[in-house]
Design brief:
Layout: H1 20-30, E1 39-44, E2 50-56, E3 63-68, H2 78-89, E4 93-98, H3 119-131, E5 136-142, H4 144-156, E6 164-168, H5 174-180, H6 187-207, H7 219-230, H8 235-243, E7 255-261, H9 274-279, E8 283-288, H10 303-315
Parallel strand pairs: 3-4, 3-5, 5-6, 6-7, 7-8
Antiparallel strand pairs: 1-2, 2-4
Helix pairs in contact: 2-10, 7-8
Amino acid sequence: MKTNLRHVPDLQAPSWCFSGHIHTISRSLLGDTNQPPLSHIEISTPDEDFLELDYHIQPESDAIIALFHGLEGSTNRYYMVELMKTLINNGYSIVGVNFRGCGSKPNKQPRFYHSGETNDYQTVFNWISGKYPDKKIGAVGFSLGGNALLKYLGETGEESLVKTAVSVSVPYDLRIGSILLSKGFHRIYEYHFLRTLRDKLDQKRKRIPGLPTFDGSTLYEFDNQVTAPLHGFDGAEDYYKQCSARRFVDEIKTDTLLVHSKEDPLCPAEAIPLAKINQNPNTDYIITEEGGHVGFWSKPKGWLNFVIENYLSSNI
């Protein structure tokens, strides 16, 4: 922690939760996925595609918090649902974003989404500011969604539409994270991601012939064969180099909190650009001794969402 964040306790994990893998997997399996009452809308993108948003607007609220999920997630994921409920209970309006192809139906264009797609973030923020001009905008991103959020904040600087932000379990160095997933027990996560990515690609190819083919067995190979060519990058290495959040942290002009666990099994804490974070007066961090990737079991329950809401309320 760079500064003393107001009223933030240390994470206390239960004794049975003794590794980052247990935090990550058990939270995913046992988390709350029962969404609060939400409205649904499709908004158009500049390239004649669409984004699906699930939102809850409280007329008396001063701020709307946009939420961005991780790789192959959606607004149905437990970390999105639980945070939605916490924020709504604390008087905020929320907008949950489903990335292209992650909502209720496939998107129209050949492209999908990726760790550095910030044009869609701008589309979402433009929609919020246009429809609710009296409300300030906050943002929370998880994993891949947090990486792209930091990239957006760094790219836009003083022009950002976001007043305050939190990013959780960010890769920071996409190459390191991708390579790690192909080793040992980590392959269980890679298998899960690749299964749904491959299925989406195969389904979309039925509607859009000529899409890239995937004949590999790792996320690196998927990014090299599919993600990169579909989104204008010269292979996986170019994609990782251009889109890793560590490149953009020092350009962030928005009050931003970065939350990470030393035990994160997907995104190693060693990739966190601490020097850049410490040199930027707008960025702060909490790095816990325990916890997993996005998943943080705690005593009492709800430590992560308490931290997020506390930071947002202090800065928005």
